Automatic annotation (TrEMBL):
Keywords, in A-Z order: Membrane, Transmembrane, Transmembrane helix
Organism: Allgaiera indica
Source organism, top-level taxon: Bacteria
Alphabetical list of InterPro entries matching this protein: DUF7220
Membrane-spanning ranges: 12-34, 46-65
Protein name listed in UniProt: Uncharacterized protein
Length: 74
């Protein structure tokens, strides 16, 4: 069954949101190991800087693999 573009975007957005939460938690734990001290606001801002890139990457890869799958079924 073919996945719609909307569902690809929902899947990609969900993946990015989960990744964002995990990234913030990881930064809070790992940054001090390297002597990087930042506040929560900085952690959130750093995480947001990567959200757009992650969303585009996830969506593009999902669409690529969907296109490859559909090409293989013809």
């Amino acid at each position: 069954m073919k996945q719609s573009r909307l569902m690809s975007m929902v899947e990609a957005a969900t993946n990015v949101v989960v990744g964002y939460v995990l990234a913030i938690a990881t930064q809070i734990v790992v940054f001090p190991w390297f002597g990087i001290e930042t506040g929560l606001a900085e952690h959130l801002t750093i995480g947001l800087a990567f959200v757009g890139v992650s969303l585009v990457r996830s969506f593009a890869l999902r669409r690529l693999f969907e296109a490859l799958r559909m090409r293989g079924t013809k």
